[in-house]
Design goal:
CATH topology of the largest domain: Rossmann fold
Strand content: 25-35%
CATH superfamily of the largest domain: NAD(P)-binding Rossmann-like Domain
CATH architecture of the largest domain: 3-Layer(aba) Sandwich
Radius of gyration: 24 Å
Oligomer: single chain
Number of domains: 3
Length: 439
């Protein structure tokens, strides 16, 4: 068999992931060539910091400061976009597609918001847009959903898909500290960015959940319909109470198939401590997928970092290299379902979501308080799973009441909380956190 010349790759942005990709590709080039059927070489790099880029690639690739020079080069077959964000990255990806280049990207924000437009452009040009690195770093979750589990009707997905927030929650739990203190520490250690908003407000996890939801259920990507809450309001006391009741609190990205539509939500969630995913600590990621045939599967690993993410980028390069000459109609569709088979199943508003709840009420320690609270819940058709009443401290006339409910419609719970809040014996804002058994 004659050996084909190596496929040539242009890299836009050689930061943490870009340099990892360059190194993994060089280090494992022989192995990769044997798997892909031909060599894969990054021959051109665009980065604004030309000197730093040259320091990484040496004389193995041409370095330029203009991404468009890479896209314009007829020798380049695949463009890797590692710039990030919605701005120039979108323009460059669309320009690369228009130039007939395949694209590999780790940009979840771009795909969660503009994926529909980008995939349509790629389909029209007959090129591939591969994005394994966009969700959960080095864990091959996109491939699992799109190919490995393709026989299944996916029922639900629940994932710890943001390492920064998981690190913060792990620290809050193990050290009993509040959010603000742990965030400072996470920034000092480099687990959190100087501006951590996208992570701690749940936006990053929302982008990733949106992409997984589209692939699992065959719907367009529509981040604007996701319900997104972060961890900034969580307090150490709730983590402690949850622990006493046999639960851990994690920031989960959840998407579920329901009769009326699809749930798509990111928020802090109580999970039973006995579940494997509840024990995922530090900056690690994990995704649980429930399929009708396979049952529950769990994917665990590093969700960020130079080489873990590079692992996914290089796998995409190998996929494209294998498919490079294949008829576009015989490739695995971008979002798992054939383009003409996408459904406009509605994404349900949060009020229609069905889940259980943890409630913490600061109440006056006097007779009859509890019966008023339980009556309000009963009137809304909400049944109680567990109830914990703390002894009030010496000389204090108030105490915490913790309630775990069974599954209920979110809208009903909101009404019940508003009614309980208006009782004059409820002395502080009620804390309510969603709870999932993930059974």
């Amino acid at each position: 068999m004659k050996t084909m010349k190596p496929i040539q790759v242009g890299l836009l942005g050689i930061g943490t992931v870009g340099s990892g990709t360059f190194q993994v590709l060089r280090r494992n080039q022989e192995e990769i060539r044997r798997r892909a059927g031909r060599g894969i070489e990054i021959t051109m790099v665009a980065d604004l910091d030309v000197e730093r880029a040259k320091g990484i690639v040496g004389d193995h690739a041409t370095v330029v400061n203009d991404a468009r020079a890479v896209i314009a080069n007829p020798a380049i077959d695949i463009v890797i976009e590692l710039i990030g964000g919605y701005g120039i990255a979108k323009t460059l990806v669309l320009e690369a597609i228009a130039a007939g280049k395949h694209v590999v990207t780790a940009n979840k924000a771009l795909l969660a918001v503009h994926g529909t437009e980008i995939f349509a452009a790629a389909a029209e040009k007959g090129v591939v847009v591969a994005f394994e690195a966009a969700v959960a770093g080095g864990i091959p979750i996109i491939k699992a959903l799109r190919e490995g589990l393709t026989a299944n009707r996916i029922e639900w997905i629940a994932g710890i898909i943001n390492g920064t927030t998981n690190f913060i929650l792990s620290e809050m739990r193990s050290k009993g500290l509040d959010f603000a203190d742990v965030l400072k520490e996470a920034q000092r250690l480099g687990y959190a960015e100087a501006d951590p908003t996208f992570d701690i407000e749940g936006v990053d996890a929302g982008h990733k959940a949106t992409i997984m939801s589209a692939i699992a259920f065959g719907v367009p990507v529509q981040f604007d319909k996701a319900h997104v809450e972060g961890i900034t309001k969580l307090s150490a006391v709730d983590i402690k109470y949850a622990e006493q009741l046999g639960y851990r609190i994690k920031l989960l990205g959840i998407t579920k198939r329901r009769e009326a539509g699809i749930e798509l939500r990111v928020h802090p969630t109580l999970i039973p401590t006995k579940r494997l995913i509840a024990n995922v600590e530090g900056a690690m990621n994990a995704v649980v997928v429930q399929g009708d045939a396979v049952g529950t599967t769990l994917y665990y690993g590093k969700g960020a970092g130079s080489e873990p993410t590079a692992s996914a980028v290089v796998a995409d390069l190998v996929d494209i290299t294998r498919l490079h000459t294949a008829d576009p109609h015989h490739r695995v569709p971008y979002l798992a379902f054939q383009p003409g088979e996408m459904k406009d199943t509605p994404i349900l508003p949060i009020e229609q979501v069905v889940t259980a709840f943890y409630l913490r009420l600061r109440v006056a320690d006097e007779p009859g308080v509890l019966s008023k609270i339980t009556t309000i819940l009963a009137d809304q058709g909400i049944s109680i799973d567990a109830l914990l009443q703390r002894e009030s401290a010496e000389g204090e006339r108030q105490t915490d009441v913790i309630i775990l409910t069974h599954d209920t419609v979110e809208g009903k719970m909101r009404e019940a909380v508003a009614m309980m809040q208006s009782l004059n014996t409820v002395l502080a804002p009620i804390v309510s956190i969603r709870k999932e058994e993930l059974a």
